[in-house]
Amino acid sequence: MQESQTMRISALANAMKAEGKDIVSLSAGEPDFPTPDFVNLAGIEAIRSGFTRYTANSGIPELKKAIVEKFRRDNGLEFQTNQVMVSNGGKQTLANTFLALCEEGDEVLIPAPFWVSFPEMVRLAGATPVTVPTSIENGYKMTPADLTAAITPATRMLVLNSPSNPSGSVYSEAEVRALMDVLKGREIFVLSDEMYDMIVYGAVKAFSPARIPEMKEWVIVSNGVSKTYAMTGWRIGYLAGPKWIIDACDKIQSQTTSNPNAIAQKAAVAALEGDQSVVEERRREFEKRRDFMFHALNAIPGVEATLPEGAFYIFPSIRGIIGRTLGGKVMKDSADVAEYLLKEHYVATVPGDAFGAPENLRLSYAASIASLEEAVLRISRAFQ
């Protein structure tokens, strides 16, 4: 396994900040907004009331009930509480699933660009990650033809991440249905990572493959409160799917971490059941930032960005920069470019190598407009 490149870059940027460097960081995958007050208060009340002991391994009943209602309200999905479990963040829900369903000899299809941890988690389970390349021309989305060509007798699972980290692409209902048509009858599982489902723009709507009746027994849905409610540090993720798979993940979790944080579970109940207007307010702000970054980055020679449809990342191609000499060094790939931007111009980005796209950079626009303006100005100067 390799360490997370996003964590590595963020740590390096923080170390440079501690040295007094004026770093503009666009590397972290977390909202810059605070956790909503009503969520914080629920956590404080949990402490004051003594709700600080072990809970049921797979989560407290009231949180499972809130998750079931969230799926019904926001995603058009019907689950029973015994088809849901709560984990220590979205990463654990995904890792539990890979460990439960995959083993040596299995292949897991992962469209690229992909979130950095998908292939490493597959390797942790003993299986083999198989990258399915996509292109900027297709909006970084896998086509049915791409999927068909990648399937082998060893294919055990497809990972579908929509809205996508890092590209911001969102598969439409028609696109999801076309992909699922390829899988029908093949006995291939689908792990649908829907962490950014509530952060989408314009008329775009996220569509879960679990809504397709013929695929319901083959789809596992992963989500969490981290991005939607700015609760990254609270570490609450949740998983839903066929009961036998959830039971297997529950068993794995019981022997690794046991239950998620009790206090954070109470806060998550408040987040899911509370006033959802804060979600829309923040989504609108992200949309303004997205629009700014899209136009500003495309104005820089050598940079080409697609318009993200969801999440809070933009994933520009820097094909026009790779091969050039900057700062006295030839830029061989995105890792060189990211290092140059950080060390010479104090802008923290994440190289696309980590996402299976060595000609791209991931920039998070979970930062103020002022910070984004400064970052783009520095990048423009760096590439001149």
Question: In brief, what are we looking at here?
Answer:
It is built from twelve helices and 14 strands.
Q: Main traits of this protein?
A:
7-stranded mixed β-sheet, alpha/beta, Aspartate Aminotransferase, domain 1, 384 residues
**Average residue-wise pLDDT:** 96
Q: What would CATH call the homologous superfamily of the largest domain?
A: Type I PLP-dependent aspartate aminotransferase-like (Major domain)
Please identify the structural class as seen in this structure: alpha/beta
- The overall number of domains is 2
Q: What fold name goes in the CATH topology slot of the largest domain?
A: Aspartate Aminotransferase, domain 2
Order of helices and strands: HEHHEHEHEHEHEEEHHHEEEHEEEH
Radius of gyration, in Å, reads 21 Å
The unreliable regions are none
Largest sheet: 7 strands, mixed
Beta-strand portion reads: 5-15%
Bulk shape: globular
Helix content: 25-40%
Distance between the termini: 37 Å
Protein name: Aminotransferase
Family: Belongs to the class-I pyridoxal-phosphate-dependent aminotransferase family.
Enzyme class: transferase
GO biological process, one term: amino acid metabolic process
